[in-house]
Amino acid sequence: MSQSSDFADLVRQARAQQRPELLTQAIPYARLLGIQAQQHPDGLRFLMAASAGNVGNPTLPALHGGAIGGCMETAAALHLLMHMDTLKVPKIVDFSIDYVRAGKLRDTWVSCDVVRQGRRLVNIGINAWQTDPSESIARARAHFLLSD
Amino acid sequence: MATHVEIPAATIAGFPPDKARRLFELMVSANKGDHFHQLGLAIEHVDARCVRVRLPYGEHLVGNPDTGVIHGGVLTTVLDTCCGFATLTALAQPELCPTMDLRIDYMRPATPGKTLYAEGEVYRVTDQVIFTRGVAYHETRDHPVAHCVANFSRLDAAIAAQMAEQITRVMDSLEGAHEPKQ
What we know:
Strand content of chain B: 25-35%
CATH class of chain B: Alpha Beta
Shape of chain B: globular
CATH topology of chain A: Thiol Ester Dehydrase, Chain A
Helix content of chain A: 25-40%
CATH topology of chain B: Thiol Ester Dehydrase, Chain A
Largest sheet of chain A: 6 strands, antiparallel
Helix content of chain B: 25-40%
Structural class of chain B: alpha+beta
Number of domains of chain B: 1
Largest sheet of chain B: 6 strands, antiparallel
CATH superfamily of chain B: Hotdog Thioesterase
Low-confidence stretches of chain A: none
Shape of chain A: globular
Distance between the termini of chain B: 40 Å
Largest interface: A-B, 44 and 40 residues
Mean pLDDT of chain B: 89
Oligomer: heterodimer
Strand order of the largest sheet of chain B: 1-2-6-7-8-5
Structural class of chain A: alpha+beta
Strand content of chain A: 35-45%
Number of strands of chain A: 8
CATH superfamily of chain A: Hotdog Thioesterase
Mean pLDDT of chain A: 94
CATH class of chain A: Alpha Beta
């Protein structure tokens, strides 16, 4: 699609006004998970509020690992949209996640860190936690392709 | 699914596919409004060491509003689910092992409007770890949307035994309900 799509306009607006929530609202899957984006002194932070809709194991109860992974991947794409030149949703190439602690039915926070930006490929690290950023529930990394 | 499946004989005595299928159908349907319902995931096929799930296309799954392509995160959930379920078909007793790690390679975007299928398969079981791999596709596995490998950590023996007992009890009571006593 062209650079003049509605979404490209939203990306420009979100960057100019520093309002990442314009993008989370425009992506149906981000709305499904209930992802919010906020500016924080340490950088952009994403919140997936505790919600029954993201539960995979009702007896614990625990978030579905896929919801945690999906939230982290969404956060990474949004992080790139806010920080890179691209106006299109970046294409995911691969995604690798380590689940290190139980994802309880609680608010989950995510932050991203661009490890390396090449000409077309970006390597990004993603951290998810619930109570303390140093106590990750999951760590992930992904490669994205930035299209022209 | 694949040709080389390395499973120690002692661990494959168990959970029969038809029973496993009933358990999976219960897991994706019993808890109204959970993440399985949010996505619309259904069980398609179960056999020894392999589980196939189905996810019809829906606007709620879209990750790119310009193209209507579903989000990669949807693939994560679908592949994590079918690989996780596949672990149960390779164990003598039902044990819900948490995902330790998962790696997905995206081969091509999913096609808007098309139903997605994903298959997970167990290729190695040890006392500590179950190794699985999976593939997501529309029409045929030869034209994959994504590949994955996922490892699952075994539970402590005591917890696993307790869980197996609970699951078996639930399954037995359901089967009792399906087959009226004479």
